[in-house]
Amino acid sequence: MSTEYEVVIGLEVHAELKTKTKIFCSCPTEFGGEENTHVCPGCLGFPGTLPIMNKKAVEYAVRAGLALNCEIQEYSKFDRKHYFYPDLPTAYQISQFEFPICKAGYVEIAVNGKKKKIRLNRIHLEEDAGKLLHSGNSITSSQYSLADYNRSGMGLIELVSEPDLSSAEEARTYLEKLRAVLEYTGVSDVKMEQGSLRCDANISLRPVGSSKLGTKTEIKNMNSYRSLQRALEYEIERQREVLEEGGTIIQETRGWDEEKGITSSMRSKEEADDYRYFSDPDLPPIVLEPAWVEEIRASLPELPDAKKDRLVMELGLSEYDADIITGSRALADFFDKTVTLFNEPKTVANWVMGEYLRLLNAEGTEVQESKVSPEKMAALLKSQATGKISGKMAKAVFEEMFMTGKDPEKIIKEKGLVQISDTDALGEIVEKVLAANPQSVADYQAGKEKALGFLVGQVMKETKGQANPGVVNGLLKQKLTD
Amino acid sequence: MSSLLGLTAHQLQGLLEKKEISSEDLVKEHLTRIAQSEEQIKAFVTVTGQEALQQARTIDEKRSRGEQPGSLAGIPLALTDNLCTQGIKTTASSRMLRDFRPPYNAAVVEKLQEAGAVSVGKCNLDEFGLGASTENSAFFPTHNPYGEQAVPGGACGGAAAAVAAQEVVFALGSDTGGSLRQPASFCGVIGLKPTYGAVSRYGLIACASSLDQVGCFTRDMTDCALVMNVIYGRDAKDSTSVSFPAGDFTKFLVNDVKGLKIGIPREYLQEVNDPRITAYLQQAAAKLEELGAVCEEVSLPHTAEAASCYNLILAAEVSSNLARYDGVQYGLRVQGEDLVSMYKKSRSQGFGEEVKKQIILGTYVLSSGQYEDYYLQALKVRTLIKEDFAQVLSKYDCLLTPATPTAAFDFGAIKDNLSLLTSLNTLTCPANLAGIPALSLPFGTAAQGSPCGLQLLGRAFGEETLLRVGYALEQNTNLTQPSPAVKGEM
User: Fold this and answer.
1) Which residue in A361, B62, B190, B335 has its CB near the most CB atoms, within 10 A?
2) What is the ipTM of this complex?
3) pTM of structure
4) B371/A284 Cβ within 8 A
5) Is B84 on the interface with A (CB under 8 A)?
């Protein structure tokens, strides 16, 4: 009989802080500058330079902590984490080891309609390292490597979860939830593809019912939500196979290979660095004023969970719809603003989740960059609601509006899209269609409801699609029962 | 014109203000002196004569236009070579940084420049500040101006010797466990280690960050106060620096110690192995009592543990601070077949023996499994030492101790002489562990006519008392050392 295993996953998530300057110097943090242009002696680790705490970075860490229900620590301090690597100029990373700025938080996730609380162990502040570009595949196999220190000294928060996640899907959902919270609070850009959100996973399996944790592996190099899920699914199966064959899991760090779709060993526990943490003597501890923390709390925006609840309870959206809309702050804000201009939340939700998201994804555009404003969206929906244009027309108008950013009224005018709702005008056409299709009339009267659709279609054809389908429907029914 | 060598900054200021001399002449005279005496002393790693003359001429021009050129305008000084100077080699007396030219100035260098002081060069030290004799310099040892066989002390032996040999009027250096006070004692000059945080460490090549402080060597107490006026104060580039409430330090140069309570820690006297030093200390105490102070023996019970505690904290922080010298961005790079071998070769060839010893020890005491037994214990002892001082200094205004257990020893004497090194450290490192200010001032001569000094320890930010007591001793005793016999004397 085979043993049933349960999966235990914890995530370590790094989010780059959206501060204007680096965490310990005044270099800019903009993404994509020319190599080694956003650097100074400080973030290059030159002799005699000293770190200066960026207050905004502290504020952002507190912000994230409050939004994730953490206990904000009045006292926290920085430690040095030592290891040699060319992307780390001082050969130590300034991080918070002993006393992190936030402890014991949680977020709620929902997978398959089941809600679950995922606990955070801690959030701490630290600095990022630079980037290396190898002439070959890796630093050991390369003839030379180039170093870019623009990223060196950028502020990060590391969010460490408890091992509360029990599937790859939960892990992904949790990461998406963190992403949303960090985006809502303005703490980070959270763009995985640009590296402003990064994630490592600790994963182990244990027999169901066992309280002892199995030997874990640490998975690295997962650069998207999809690769996180794939990597964990792969690793779960790999570990299951090893255990089922009576083998043992080796505690090690494994890298995810996106192309091959496998994880493979990077280094074992024995090869792991001894980081030799100790308090950084160059930085005084952070002592937070409770009043300042409260100020930050008061400035928090409506968070994804609260927003979702409001969308469901007050606006009558389904859980599913509310989840998708609140998945990103930009989308949720777009929705909210549109609803204030056109107060039919469900219609707005359908459009936002349907046409709008479809085109955003197809074009690879962000809400912030989109040419469609809530004002234009609302104007379009009004035109449809008043019957000026049909739903089909509205879609066509929307698509053009999405591409060009033109006002919907202008597009309607240019295309000559006017819906015929006038019962007198449509009445004549209806009569004509009925006269020309006696068989369908007979079918309908014999109880074949389908025939009505055919007749509506004929009227639409006669009017080149400009007839108001609702009005046509009503007219037909009336004439057929007369 | 009689020689300007050997005059103090405040004496020279008077002459400069009255335009009896020019800064250019003053700098020239000191450069000449350097040219003559360096063969014997070897205080300098780099002499920046051209830059100094240029700066002196600028000061003279300012003065001739009637502009105020700064409080130390035109006065020649030397910088220990672990203070960064923009575009000028800053080596920390290490092969690792032999050709390192920082793109920035240390905060104190900026402040001195604003005050118009003229740096004539960079002085030798024990590599990265690790040593007590300058014998650990990667380049050459510096000789004590009072005796060619004697060390000048260390780590900042070069700067102390430069002041003593009248190559400069004053000098700056750093003190991690006695690196200013001990060479000051051996070279017969004043050495001040300020309260931790009183002077910015920005641009000081770090040895042990929680112990390092930038301070000065001067010929008298007035110059000491004048230099303090320039270098003290909070600096936004050093988050451990604080604003100092004192204002003008020269106002504490009053010949009055009436009512001051001065403690003499008995544990410090036990370290002394030259009876003349004990006698000098008693003479000084008697003089202070005569002037109206009260001197009493006190106890700092954890003094015996200070040196071991210091050794561990020093090594731990050195191992961390010196990790950056890996051959990647600056400093010595020795190519290897791969990354790790490049690291190993660069660090093996770039660092000297003492530095390597400290790095190995520090790496060990911070490693997992050892941290609790060594580093953490050292931190606890450090707290006890701080408490010792807090307790005694709540009852006493300052403490009077010997600065060194002996006068300057000969080259080679300290190598493997652990008890001498421990005694040296025991007298000076507690002030660094506790972060309190400490001043070494010359007081008499010990064996072979070489100088030795007394030390004053004060409360954190209690520099005022050190200045008062030091000034009273200076005014009422004969502190002045006979000038050393330096070759090439005019």
Assistant:
1) B190
2) 0.93
3) 0.87
4) no
5) yes
